[in-house]
Amino acid sequence: MAKTAAELMAELANDKQYQAKKTEKEKQINELKRIFEQDEKKLVFDINSNGISVKSVWDLVNTQNDYYEAVPVLIEHLKIKHHPKILAGIARSLAIPKLTDNDDLWLTLVSLYRVTPSDAQIDIPEERGAQQSIAVALEALADNTRVKDLEKIIAEQPAGDSVDWLKDKLRAINRVYSTDHLNSQPGSNDLS
Question: Is 0.90 surpassed by the pTM of this model?
């Protein structure tokens, strides 16, 4: 006969080995929280000083609120060594299409993608995700003026995290650019 959830919970509560593993896991999680909080302390202070109230850079990711005033701070912190999870949050928070013309941001992201290890190269799960987050930002900012950089990244990092997104973006840019170019040619109205 199967155990009920209550019976299983009571059994686990009395299982010393399970409780020791659970306690160790809680310690690891608390230590990671401490590391993340310490790492992003100055970043959070700088963002808050610009009138944007956050407890973590991750509060900016996917928010509907405008935080454009914090963009210079985020770009500066992108250039500072941070824990990979904090770097990932900074990159994701900068994945804003209206920042496409920001050359400093673009060049910083390109450089970071090149030097940031892919998840396959990282043994510690809590340190994974930075290169993918940088790819998210590159994909959001890429336009037809960034084609050469995208081509170089794809050529240099064919196994990089989310390189397929960058390939898709490159194809989309080339498709739009080709269509726009064709439509601007004399006699282009003849195309159907």
Answer: no
